[in-house]
Amino acid sequence: MATILVVDDEEPIQELLRFNLEKDGYLVCVAKDGQDALNQVMKDQPDLIVLDLMLPGMDGLEVCRKLRSNPKFQQIPIIMLTAKGEEIDKVLGLELGADDYMTKPFSPRELLARIKARLRRINSQEEADAQIIIRGELRVDVTGFRVHVRGEETELTPKEFELLRVLVAHPGKVYSRDELLERIWGYEYDGDTRTVDVHVRHLRLKVERDPSNPEYIETLRGIGYRFKG
Known about the structure:
CATH topology of the largest domain: Rossmann fold
Shape: elongated
Mean pLDDT: 87
Strand order of the largest sheet: 2-1-3-4-5
Helix content: 40-55%
CATH architecture of the largest domain: 3-Layer(aba) Sandwich
Low-confidence stretches: none
Distance between the termini: 10 Å
Number of domains: 2
Structural class: alpha/beta
Radius of gyration: 20 Å
CATH superfamily of the largest domain: Response regulator
């Protein structure tokens, strides 16, 4: 379920978008100004941002510029909204990295169609490209055998990389230790499942903020592991 951040200082617009997006099955968070938007992105890392151009304090163009200058948030699609119709605003927004642009008053139905199209494009691109898998603050380049955690490249052993690749590719799916042994090490049922536990422990040290309280790799006692996402 995708999370959409709506950034607009007009409460009626916030409520209109929240109602239509939630009705379509999206999770919605709302920010009322530019700084609030940046704080929300840091906290929630939404899948897409609907960003009003005219905001109190920091305007939408500056919010867009700041997001696009941060490697962690460069891939989040941004659809800009504005009451202005001047071509210069559209050009500036697109040059700063906005992915799409709509002028108020807008049709909620058209906006929903654009959001769906943009999210579909991201998903199909991820699959076609080999997969650059992005989950929260993790970026896994499957073909390049590279992992970035919070913007910094992290060295993993081949088995650690393969373990992470299997887990992040199917968030929410539970893998038993035996299944992971067979997929990654090629062991049959009589393999030593402690091998999996050791590698999970080492992997958590490299990708989790707090390995003792993991936010990504979850242990299901007596069952196995899954990637939370």
